[in-house]
Design a protein that fits this description.
about 170 residues, about 40% helix
Length: about 170
């Protein structure tokens, strides 16, 4: 439930230009510490500390899964994730299944927010923006069907997608 005093304060601040408003109604106010995070009836009010946005539970799970993916190896002891362009597979899984942005530049921002730009193989827009896999369907959930017939280039994407879905428990 939205506190009436908080809502009144927020609406007054909007009128004075002290709060940024975007979308239907999104209100953001920076304070010294987090006071409240309320979502009710389509209206969200978030008061945060002005520092980096804290990660949601799902963001934290995704961050952990990507970190585990970076350390995962195949049967020969080689990293599954070994090329910059394999970020394309991560992009496809997270944008198609986990609700992350399907716009490559926005996805890069999402990954920066969870620290993926500081990993062993950092996420950068140029790593995945121009990748085209002619042999694979657009739907990443179908890629597993090609794990025995794909060319080597597609196979490295398939391995990353399958492992990430496994780590996120999406492979059921």
């Amino acid at each position: 439930m939205v506190n009436k005093d908080d809502l009144k304060y927020a609406l007054e601040a909007i009128g004075k230009g002290g709060i940024n408003v975007a979308g239907d109604l999104v209100i953001e106010k920076h304070v010294d510490y987090e006071v409240n995070n309320v979502e009710a009836g389509g209206i969200g009010i978030q008061i945060n500390n002005g520092k980096e946005k804290s990660l949601t539970t799902s963001d934290e799970d995704i961050k952990k899964a990507i970190e585990a993916l970076m350390e995962a190896t195949d049967g020969e002891g080689q990293y599954i994730m070994h090329d910059l362009d394999q970020w394309y597979a991560i992009f496809r899984v997270l944008s198609q299944i986990c609700g992350y942005s399907s716009k490559p530049k926005d996805f890069e921002t999402n990954m920066h927010n969870i620290g993926a730009d500081k990993l062993r193989i950092p996420c950068k827009y140029d790593n995945y923006r121009k990748i085209v896999l002619n042999q694979l369907p657009k739907n990443v959930m179908l890629w597993g069907q090609y794990k025995n017939s794909a060319d080597q280039y597609s196979m490295k994407q398939i391995k990353v997608a399958i492992k990430l879905m496994e780590l996120l428990h999406l492979d059921r």
